[in-house]
């Protein structure tokens, strides 16, 4: 078999746990990657659970995998295996590399199938699955989950992580020894300070002089909503004037609405240029999540010239220059979060300076360059697998 030498020679079988059912950073990144590969002449086949009413149209050919809804989180599904029809489809497609993006049962079986065929496997890491149990009073599960993830990722020929900080975590956890970067880009047609809209803010009851502390995210507890609310409580207790603007939706929205002050504004789900307008109309991003592997939210806010206050955790710490474009605070340190947010609320010049530094940093992230790095990793793993097999 002739080895592929360029991107157009690739035939990629991509396994996703949730390719287009929910609009989140991981799904958007995977669809962007597939669109880029197809535009370069590569062949891609996507295998994922499907639903009757997905969040958006998928990029590329999508083959449905059997799945079940996660109890209590029905918007997500777990792919359960590779039935005979899917295996026949895989055989007919004849990929030269398999890409697995979620450590579910179907992906485990896809890795086994690829190894039996002598095909290389790339695993992409999109979230800190190992940290999720602590938000549901199941912290004792974390070591078990980490062990399961280690077995899965070490059966891959290589991994890609979205940030150097996440790659280092994976190395420390001994998940794999071949870890490359697949960063994230920002759509500058959507996220730009020019989209700031004071009339839109007024329509929400926010006055022009009010400083808006914003969050845009899927509203789930693992995004640090409890820390966000506790921090806002401290600002209120100290008499620091501000308004809270929440953009997004999710199963924790009702809890969040009840937990935040009554004058907090919930703008709901926003997408495209509407989302860009909402983000640019904030004054400070406060994002205390520790589950991000990259920090799409952080980068998009930076592109809108917002100073950012984030948890010092994987993802954000690779983006934010602490004290120059934002503040990185020890996870869960509510007092320090409040102090950092207060500093931006009370100092317009500091907001402007740090926002400008963040915007300059955001220009380093080009989607085409980033997605080509994944294609280059595919080609490298194929070459390495061929050498080992000789």
TrEMBL record:
| NADP in keyword set | no
Q: Key word Nucleotidyltransferase present in the record?
A: no
- At the top level, the lineage of the source is Bacteria
Q: Which UniProt keywords apply?
A: Transferase
The protein's matches in Pfam families, at most eight in alphabetical order, are given as: Glyco_trans_1_4, Glyco_transf_4
Q: Name one GO molecular function term.
A: glycosyltransferase activity
* Glycosyltransferase subfamily 4-like N-terminal domain span: 24-187
**Protein name from the UniProt record:** Glycosyltransferase involved in cell wall biosynthesis
């Amino acid at each position: 078999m002739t080895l592929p030498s360029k991107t157009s020679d690739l035939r990629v079988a991509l396994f996703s746990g949730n390719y287009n059912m929910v609009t989140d950073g991981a799904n958007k990144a995977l669809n962007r990657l597939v669109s880029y590969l197809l535009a370069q002449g590569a062949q891609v086949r996507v295998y994922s659970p499907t639903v009757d009413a997905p969040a958006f149209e998928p990029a590329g050919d999508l083959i449905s995998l059997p799945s079940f809804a996660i109890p209590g989180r029905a918007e997500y599904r777990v792919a359960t295996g590779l039935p005979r029809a899917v295996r026949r489809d895989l055989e007919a497609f004849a990929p030269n590399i398999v890409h697995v993006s979620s450590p579910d049962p179907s992906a485990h079986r896809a890795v086994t199938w690829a190894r039996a065929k002598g095909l290389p496997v790339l695993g992409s890491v999109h979230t800190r699955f190992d940290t999720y149990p602590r938000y549901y009073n199941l912290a004792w599960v974390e070591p078990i989950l980490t062990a399961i993830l280690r077995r899965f990722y070490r059966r891959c020929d290589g991994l890609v992580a979205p940030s150097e900080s996440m790659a280092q975590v994976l190395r420390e956890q001994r998940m794999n020894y071949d870890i490359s970067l697949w960063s994230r880009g920002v759509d500058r047609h959507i996220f730009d300070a020019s989209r700031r809209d004071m009339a839109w803010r007024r329509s929400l009851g926010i006055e022009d002089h009010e400083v808006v502390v914003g969050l845009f995210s899927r509203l789930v507890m693992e995004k640090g909503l409890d820390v966000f609310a506790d921090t806002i409580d401290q600002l209120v207790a100290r008499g620091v004037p501000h308004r809270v603007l929440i953009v997004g939706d999710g199963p924790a929205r009702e809890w969040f609405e009840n937990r935040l002050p009554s004058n907090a504004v919930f703008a709901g789900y926003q997408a495209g240029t509407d989302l860009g307008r909402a983000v640019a109309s904030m004054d400070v991003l406060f994002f205390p999540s520790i589950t991000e592997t990259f920090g799409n939210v952080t980068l998009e806010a930076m592109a809108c010239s917002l100073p950012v206050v984030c948890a010092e955790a994987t993802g954000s710490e690779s983006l934010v220059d602490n004290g120059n474009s934002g503040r990185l605070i020890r996870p869960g340190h509510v007092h320090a979060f409040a102090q950092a947010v207060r500093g931006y609320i009370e100092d317009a010049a500091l907001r402007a300076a740090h926002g400008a530094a963040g915007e300059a940093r955001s220009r380093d992230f080009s989607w085409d360059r980033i997605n080509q790095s994944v294609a280059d990793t595919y080609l490298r793993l194929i070459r390495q697998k061929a050498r080992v097999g000789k």
